[in-house]
Structure formats: C-alpha cells, structure tokens
Amino acid sequence: MKRVLSICVALLLIFLFVGCGTSNNNKEQSTKIIVAEFRALSWLPVHLAYELGYFEEQGLDVEFAVYRDGTLALQGMHANNSQFCLLSQGTIFLGEDQGLRSELVIAMKKNRPFVLATAKSINSIDQLKGKIVFAGLPGSEPYQLVSNVLTNAGLNIKEDITYVNLDYGAALAALGSGQIKASYFGIEYTSDLEKAGVNIVFSTGDPETALEFYGSDKFETDVICCSKEFSKKNPETVQKFVNAVLKALYWVQEHSDAEIAAKITSYYSSMSQEDLALRINYLRPAFSNDGYISKKGFDAVENFFMKYGIPQTKIEYEDIVNMNYLENAQTSLTE
C-alpha cells in the first residue's frame, strides 16, 4: 500500500512540475507588447481584448502605459517606450509634421461625438469672449475641435479666449467651481454634465450637426497606430494585435452596455458599474462595425485639420493607412 501511495505522489509531483513548466514556457514564448494610451472609453475594445483573453489567444503579453494626453502618448511610442498607441488622427498628423511616421491599422469609432459644455452663467458660445476654456494640450485633437467651434461662432481663439491646461479628469469640477467657463467633453459625459447642471452649448452627437461640422458622415478619427518602422519589422505581431482588437469590436456589438461595463470596470475604478454602463450607452452608436478606416473618412479628418495647418503638407491615404491587417483579420474571424 505504501508503494502504491509513493508512486501516486511521485506521479502527481511530475504532473505539477510539467504543468508549471508549460505555463512558464507559454509566458516566455509570448510577445511582450506595451500599448500607450490616453485612457478613454473610445478605446474600450482594446481593454476588452485584454479582459476577454483575446491578446493571450494571439500569443501577446500586453501591458498599458497611461499618459495624461495623446500627444505625450504618441511621443512615447516613437521613443520606443511602446509598440502601439491609442490615439486620434489629428494628433497623429501633428506627429507627422515632426517627422514621427505612424501607420493607422484599425478604427475604433466611425465618427467623433463630443460636446462643448459651459458654466451655468454662460448660455451661448459668443459669451465665452474673454473667458477661460479647457480643451486639452495645444495641438491635441480636442484643442483643434473646440477651436473650430469657437471660430465658427465668430471668436478669435488667439485674442478672445484664454486656454488653460488641466487634467481631463478635473475638467468637470473646474467647470462647476467657476475656475473655467467652458470645456471639451466626450459625448459619454452627457449624463454627468446634466447632473452637474452645466450647459451644453454645442454637440456633434446630433447627426445633422456632425455632418455640417465635419463635412462628412464618416470621420474615423479615433484609431490605433504603430510606427511605420515597427510595422515593417514586425508584421506578424501587428496582425495578431489587430486580430484580437477586431474580435473584441465584434464582441461589443453582441453584448449589452451592462455586460461591457462589467468587463472593464477595473479601468474606471472611480465610477460605479451602473454609471459606466450609462456612459457606454451614450457612446455606443459611434463605435465602428468593422474597424475600417475609409478613404472618405480619412480625407474628411485631414481636410478638417488642415484648416489649422495640421498636417502642414497633405498626406495621402495610402501613405499612412494600412488596412491589410484588418482585412486579414476579417477573413480569419469569418472562416
């Protein structure tokens, strides 16, 4: 009996040793990836890809590096501190002017819904003359979007407005306290703004307003990019990354706001799961169905920002957008 017991214990130890070795080997064989991001719900499919194990399925060991603004995240990627960046095209164009060559590989949203909110004492955009406004760092996409709204209202953004630099997370409190008189917010903050009792004086959440403002029904500005050099040297890694994200994008379409919120609640620990689901509900109509960056949408984004000299020289669609990875992913996921 003792001999049988000894054999069983020995077999169990061998099994545990082999099992642990296999797990460690899988970890060692996976490709380490760092994703630079300015955390926002626009890129929730990427966080879902992590939480649902889609990156792991592709053999990718992913970590996130959170920056306070998109321009800093892009600079971090091109300094080789990360391999992918979750960003808006306007900021990427600014990088192109600085010699930072990027490649756009998948879109997260088909348009860019946002609002300009003002303090309770401000009821129209023209009343912002001489006031303090927050819209991200100069050169960032929110900065350019708000500048366009103010210019359309007849304000001179260099003389009539004072821009202030804040953390995005502090904007609502600053607006409520009167520290600033207006601020950029993503459409997902609509409920928070209504609860705070501030005014929404402009919104591209309305399709007609968005069409007039952007000049197109397609405006796929929120994308994932990598450097051209990384794509050239590591096409298999880029393909695996796009495979995982597209699978998560499809998952979004098949699940409720509450189910999505339950998966990514750890990324937004400062809010309840119910509030997170509500924000997702506001943003859901904007998410892309297929991840595709169309030429029509790219041209609309570029033409919009070229009014402000970004980019300084026109960039051809084929020179910066690479949809081959996406098309391969679409094929593999439908087989």
Describe the structure.
With 335 residues, this protein is of the alpha/beta class. It has 2 domains: 31-111 and 219-334, Periplasmic binding protein-like II (D-Maltodextrin-Binding Protein, domain 2, 3-Layer(aba) Sandwich), CATH 3.40.190; 114-203, Periplasmic binding protein-like II (D-Maltodextrin-Binding Protein, domain 2). Helices cover 49% and strands 15% of the residues. It has 16 helices and 10 strands. The strands form 2 sheets. The chain has a 5-stranded mixed beta sheet, sandwiched between helices. A 5-stranded mixed beta sheet has the order 7-6-8-5-9, with helices on both faces. Strand 6 (132-134), helix 6 and strand 7 form a beta-alpha-beta unit. Helix 2 (44-51) packs across helix 11, helix 4 crosses helix 5 (89-97) and helix 12 (257-264) packs across helix 13 (273-283). The longest helix is centred in the N-terminal third of the chain and has 28 residues, at 2-29. The N and C termini lie far apart (54 Å).
Low-pLDDT segments, ≥5 res? 1-27
The CATH C-level class name of the largest domain:
Alpha Beta
Total domains, how many? 2
- Would you list the SSEs in sequence order as H and E? HEHHEHEHEEEHEHEHEHEHHHHHHH
CATH architectural designation of the largest domain: 3-Layer(aba) Sandwich
Distance between the termini: 54 Å
Give the structural class: alpha/beta
**CATH topology description of the largest domain:** D-Maltodextrin-Binding Protein, domain 2
Average pLDDT taken over every residue? 90
Short synopsis of the structure:
The protein is an alpha/beta fold.
